[in-house]
Design a protein that fits this description.
Layout lengths: L13 H9 L16 H11 L5 H13 L2 H28 L17 H32 L11 H28 L1 H8 L18 H22 L4 H18 L9 H4 L5 H11 L10 H5 L6 H20 L1
Bound molecules: zinc ion (2 copies).
The site of one zinc ion has 5 residues, from α6.
């Protein structure tokens, strides 16, 4: 494992001695070479001394060694990743909204967001990203370091990452269910916090993070806090796993707000998965379907909002009435 504070003893190659003699004031790190002026020069330097690492691990190590400041390196990477993924993932849904032949898949057929709606939504989300999320992202690295998240290479195995991400999905879903349900149960919280998110009764991808800063913080605790809690208890988590988790969570949130339901949507193959069908109904009816990723909380606690759930409730009531009569 190679990280900023934990490095193996040096094995100085000849090239190193030559370089060092040429510029004796520059600090040499035995595992990553000399600091370079550009990222790609640093990548070449890292590649020279770390032949056993794969391409992505070399990219990662070169980034952290080139930046020479872990807080800045993680901050820039996190913020850029969030913006690219958020707007990048929303873009296909904006295009789909412009295609009339896709309307047959639109859940609320007649409610197509206008360009003005999409623009004003994007601007508010962008404003919130710069004013509310940026400072939080900046604080993330010191917090991650405190709880022992790793930035070292080589990366953990894909199986380890997949297992941890599955756990985070379950943890975040539980947090989301209860906090979201509380925001609907309390009229104070609904009016002062959650109402902004319900401005669009027929959601669209960009509206996933259209919410009050307080709501962004409350729900963000589930997304960022789940891995942190995991790390606090197990002491085992890589920041890359955290990044992949956040990317998947963004995909989940944006797709759930897309407003489109396809025959190939995930919940047809994985019935516990919530998907757009589940969350669109929440925006339309303002009640029920409080969970983010899975259907089990709403199903078990009878807060599901769907034609089948209503049918189930009717059947249950009828059964109860007939058993009362029989007594
Ligand atoms: Zn809601
Ligand atoms: Zn929503």
């Amino acid at each position: 494992m190679v990280c900023c504070c934990d490095r193996a003893p040096p094995k100085f190659p000849n090239t190193y001695l030559t370089s060092l003699n040429r510029n004796s004031t520059t600090a040499f790190d035995p595992l990553v070479g000399l600091p370079q002026d550009t990222y790609w020069a640093q990548f070449d330097e890292v590649s020279k001394y770390n032949v056993s690492l794969n391409y992505f691990e070399k990219l990662w190590l070169a980034w952290y060694t080139y930046m020479q400041n872990d807080v800045l390196a993680t901050g820039i990477l996190s913020f850029a990743m969030h913006e690219i993924v958020y707007f990048g993932r929303s873009l296909p849904w904006i295009v789909i909204d412009c295609l009339p032949w896709m309307r047959k898949y639109k859940i609320q057929h007649s409610k197509i967001p206008t360009a003005k709606e999409q623009w004003s939504c994007a601007l508010l989300v962008l404003l919130s990203h710069f004013t509310v999320e940026l400072p939080q992202i900046w604080l993330f690295h010191p917090m991650a370091q405190y709880f022992g998240l790793s930035t070292a290479v080589p990366f953990p195995s894909p199986l380890t990452m997949a297992f941890q991400i599955a756990v985070f999905f379950v943890m975040e879903d539980a947090w989301h269910y209860w906090t979201h349900r509380a925001m609907h149960a309390s009229s104070f919280l609904y009016k002062n916090v959650h109402k902004i998110h319900h401005q669009y009764s027929a959601p669209f991808g960009l509206a996933a993070e259209y919410a009050s800063p307080i709501e962004v913080m409350i729900l963000g605790i589930g997304t960022v806090g789940s891995p942190i809690v995991w790390c606090a208890f197990t002491g085992e988590l890589h920041i890359l796993t955290m990044y992949i988790w956040i990317v998947l969570r963004l995909f989940q949130a944006i797709d759930a707000h897309s407003g489109y339901e396809f025959p190939w949507s995930l919940h047809h193959f994985l019935p516990i998965w919530a998907g757009a069908d589940h969350h669109d109904t929440h925006h339309e009816k303002f009640v029920g379907n409080y969970a983010s990723s899975f259907r089990w909380w709403d199903y078990c606690l009878d807060t599901e909002s769907s034609a089948e759930a209503n049918e189930r409730r009717r059947a249950f009531k009828a059964l109860k009435a007939s058993s009362k009569k029989a007594q």
